[in-house]
Design a protein that fits this description.
heterodimer; A: alpha/beta; seven-stranded parallel sheet; 9 helices; B: about 260 residues; Rossmann fold; 8 helices
Chain lengths: ~270, ~260
């Protein structure tokens, strides 16, 4: 087969959760560019539908928006069932959904118990559950690729100098749940790869660094960029290549990996 | 100072959570024999008392036991208050709560959450609340006890001749929980470091005699040192991280597995 064709997702059904904003948006674009039939599951149905229409119009692919809530187990089951009812299979699952725990206002190391609890329930437990449900289907198919979002912050601790000039950001950097959850995911993709491998199912994680957004603090951007080897935050395109690669047969012999997509932040 | 004196834990208070889980007993005996006053805190009073009796019998008695059910803020605050009142200082915290495991891969959301509430939320709250005692006193060492699954996935071929054990280790949450300590140690080291306190993780290989013979033989086959861990191997690593001999080491994960993960 032509190497370039290995990256194609034509004829494959891809389910992406949280694929409407930030890194998830770039991931959905990558799946669309590769020609997948996409199910875009989001807690915000209307903006997801608008994004789906935009993709259909601009890229000529099939995209259907679905509603679900990480905090509602029934909605997770219903969302996966809806995909199976319509497509009969899931070839690619990209999990980029997470909630930002609100809690009662603690910050960083002093994150309050409710924030931690929300993070454990909705980001950790719900993600494991959702992935295991999709995994069950892929086991039946004896094929599939799962791509989950870890983070650079699951691979390393906090560089305090990134927050020079931003004392409130510095305080918030030492939170518990995000580091623990993303660290767990890094190990879990190895654990899950050794379980799913016998069924022909692959699982890998992408571990992105900081993404530039309109809300990025310019002083933080300057300090953080110094610690990347490419001298900048990530842009919206940076995630696309790795998603298309891991979702497709181009990575058919890769499983159990956590791949930093961080401009070289974690290499020093 | 004589280098051996740096390993001494004389005059130090150590608390071990969920000591009835793997490695708890060996760590308790090790810290005690290095001179620490060792306290146990766990939800299973009967198992904890049995363990305390067994440690007493072997000449390494613990100094006290506390009832503690990890997973809620109220329980973590109550434990921290009791420790402050009873001991005044806490020098060593050994977090050993991730031994809880449900076999198999297909778990309900409720089962997953119950395990994570105990072994993940519980760990964060314990480290946060007891870490504050250490931060206030300006010194302390936190040890997060994990195992080799933090560093590598389980090898299906290790279970070839003991298939009945496969579902024990291919438990949905297992690798996730064990691995969550690796970077949590770095994260906690960041905050605690400013206060002169340390946090490290130990990833142990299986203890000899605790698994089916077929599994043990398969594991040994893939290890460089051609044997499984003994009690002294477990104890020595814990004493090192607990003591001043490791005073410039923080945020690390030490593999104590005979080289199983070094390949």
């Amino acid at each position: 087969m032509n190497t370039f064709d290995l990256f194609s997702l034509k004829g494959k059904t891809a389910l992406i959760t949280g694929g409407r904003a930030m890194y998830g948006k770039g991931a959905t674009c990558a799946l669309a560019d590769a020609g997948a039939d996409i199910f875009l599951a989001s807690h915000s149905l209307k903006p997801a539908q608008e994004f789906a229409e935009e993709l259909k119009r601009d890229k000529g692919v099939s995209v259907e928006a679905l509603s679900f809530e990480l905090g509602n187990v029934d909605s997770i089951r219903a969302m996966i069932q809806a995909v199976l009812d319509k497509a009969g299979r899931i070839d690619v699952f990209v999990n980029s959904s997470r909630i930002i725990p609100q809690g009662d206002g603690g910050n960083g190391w002093f994150e309050d118990a409710r924030q931690m609890e929300e993070g454990v329930r909705m980001n950790s437990a719900a993600s494991l559950y959702m992935t295991s449900l999709v995994g069950e289907q892929m086991i039946k198919q004896k094929s599939g690729s799962i791509v989950t979002f870890g983070s650079m912050m699951g691979l390393i601790g906090v560089e305090k100098h990134n927050y020079d000039g931003n004392p409130s950001m510095a305080e918030g950097a030492f939170g518990h749940i995000y580091a623990m959850d993303k660290s767990g995911l890094t190990a879990w993709v190895r654990h899950a790869a050794s379980y799913y491998g016998q069924y022909g199912v692959r699982i890998n994680a992408v571990c992105p660094g900081g993404l530039k957004s309109p809300r990025t603090n310019p002083v933080f951007e300057k300090e953080y960029s110094k610690h990347t080897q490419l001298g900048r935050l990530a842009n919206d395109d940076d995630i696309k290549g790795i998603i298309a690669f891991l979702a497709s047969d181009a990575s058919a012999y890769l499983t159990g990996l956590s791949i930093p997509v961080d401009g070289g932040y974690t290499c020093i | 100072m004589n280098i051996l004196e740096q390993f001494s834990l004389k005059g130090k208070n150590a608390l071990i959570t969920c000591p009835e889980y793997p490695y708890g007993k060996e760590i308790a005996a090790g810290l005690c024999s290095a001179g620490a006053c060792v306290y146990l805190a766990g939800p299973n009073a009967e198992a904890m008392n049995q363990l305390a009796a067994s440690l007493k019998e072997s000449g390494t008695p613990v100094s006290g036991c506390y009832a503690y059910e990890p997973g809620t803020e109220a329980a973590a605050v109550a434990l921290a208050d009791t420790i402050k009142k009873d001991l005044n200082t806490l020098d060593i915290l050994v977090e050993n709560s991730t031994g809880l495991r449900k076999e198999g891969w297909s778990h309900s959301f409720e089962d997953i959450y119950e395990i994570l509430q105990f072994a993940q939320l519980g760990v964060m709250l314990t480290v946060q609340k007891l870490g504050e005692i250490m931060a206030a006193q300006g010194h302390g060492s936190v040890l997060l006890i994990s195992d080799y699954a933090a560093l590598v996935g389980c090898d299906p071929y290790n279970y070839k001749d003991c298939p009945e054990d496969t579902t024990k280790d291919f438990s949905l949450e297992y690798g996730y929980l064990k691995g969550s300590f690796v970077n949590y140690a770095r994260q906690a080291a960041g905050y605690l470091g400013s206060a002169g306190c340390r946090c490290n993780c130990i990833a142990y290989g299986p203890l000899a005699g605790t698994r089916p013979e077929a599994f043990e033989n398969a594991f040994i086959r893939h290890s460089h040192l051609k044997r499984l861990a003994g009690p002294e191997d477990v104890a020595a690593a814990a004493v090192f991280f607990a003591s001043d001999a490791s005073r410039f080491i923080t945020g690390t994960t030490l593999a104590v597995d005979g080289g199983y993960t070094a390949k």
